[in-house]
Amino acid sequence: MGRILLALITVWMWPDEVGAQGYSAPALSNKDSWSMVIIPDPQGYTKFARNQPLLDLMLAWVEDNRQKLNIGLVLCTGDLVEHNYITERPKENGDQLSGSQWKCVSDAFGKLDGKLPYILCTGNHDYGTGSSENRYSQFNSYFPPVRNPLNQSLLVEMAPNAAGVRTLENACYEFRPPFGKPLLVFSLEFNPRKAVVEWAKSVAARPAYRQHRGVVLTHSYMRSTQRNNERITKEDYPPGFSDYTLGDDLWKQLIQPADNLGLVVCGHIIDVASHAGHVGFRTDKNRSGRVVNQMLFNAQNEGGNWKGNGGDGWIRILEFLPDQRTVKVKTFSPLFAISPATRQLAWRTEPFDEFEFYLD
User: Fold this and answer.
1) Pick from 227, 231, 271: nearest CA to 248
2) Where are the alpha helices (DSSP H) in the chain?
3) Which end of the chain lies in a sparser environment, N or C, as judged by fewer CB atoms within 10 Å?
4) Rounded to 5 degrees, what angle do the CA atoms 258, 263, 267 make?
């Protein structure tokens, strides 16, 4: 009887062990490090009712792991919704009205209110009806400046949006990590207007921030590894307005001339429906000869293409090491990690998904 019971226990345990084979949960490589989490374009989660719980899962995972990974800051690359303002349900590209889409992304990030600061930028789908037909966005209705006290405590300044209202569509934050230079983080609207670029340029040049490390978060900036990480010179979906700044021009007008802007994070691009078609990385030197790291991270076409699950739950974890120079990049899916049967799929380890870069 004992042998039969042992055999039954072994059989019962076997699937979980096999499914989890080789899996290790995210952890810091150095106990004194801190980390930043990047959430890629959520639009594929918010536009379908069946996918909305997946975005909730991703942010719940961030909330659960904030102490273990010493998470200091969360960034989101924009396209929070697929349809900023529609009055009829989509017949194919989603099944949710705009209010449901905005509520989904608002509720998901609401898990971090009072627990972690998070900075979101606006994408082309966050304007107009479905893709920047104009500069109207519901963003400020769901993410007002006073919403998260931890965001508000970092806020330096906001620039007026296209309607002349100061909102978090264009904002500057000062974040002081556990060690090293303080960060000056700019969140810029999709293809920012010329006045926004000039505003960011003037803030970055202030004497009080010259020794900061500047970060630019904006939706559209560069293409993927499939397109040689080129900065964008032409949009695949031209906006319905004339005042805008493309990625390559943003580099020339704001980032390259600055002495203290050292990191750019963006989303937006899908060059091909593959891991490599969603991600990119390049380095260039600014006018002072300092290295500027530029990263594209998107995932919206993963998990079954446009009508799939929204992106397989992929997030990026950036670990900032105590040497104040090294940043370890890893790509992880809380969705795959939640079940022992799929945990072996929870890490992407290709060179464009797991790598290091260095702060100058």
Assistant:
1) 231
2) 2-19, 43-46, 52-64, 98-110, 139-142, 149-154, 194-204, 247-250, 334-337
3) N
4) 120
Q: Collapsing DSSP states into helix, strand and coil, what is residue 74?
A: strand
Tokens 């078609």 map to which residue?
277
Determine the Cα–Cα distance for residues 225 and 223; give it in Å rounded to an integer: 7
Q: What is the DSSP string of 256-272?
A: TT-SSEEEEEE----SS
CB-based contact 282:228 (threshold 8 Å) = no
Answer whether 0.90 is exceeded by the pTM. Answer: yes
CA atoms within 13 A on the CB side of 256: 11
Q: 303 and 312 in contact (C-beta within 8 Å)?
A: yes
Q: Which of 51, 47, 112, 48 shows the shortest CA–CA distance to 84? A: 47
Distance CA 286, CA 330 (A): 26
Q: What is the DSSP letter of 280?
A: E
Residue type, 2: G
The percentage of residues in the chain with a pLDDT greater than 70, rounded to a whole number, is: 94
- pLDDT tens per residue across span 280-291: 999 999 999 999
Q: For 150, list phi and psi in degrees, rounded to 5.
A: -75, -35
Look at the alpha carbons of 265, 269, 274, 276 in this order and tell me if their dihedral is positive or negative.
Answer: negative
pLDDT range class, residue 21, cuts 50, 70, 90? low
Whether 351 and 334 have beta carbons less than 8 Å apart is answered as no
Residues, the chain: 360
Counting Cα atoms < 13 Å in the Cβ hemisphere of 139 gives 31
- Cα 161 → chain centroid: 21
Tokens of 38: 């990047």
pLDDT of residue 13: 30
Class of the CATH-defined domain 33-358: alpha beta
Q: How many CA atoms lie within 13 A of 213 on its CB side?
A: 20
Return the structure tokens found at 227: 């397109």
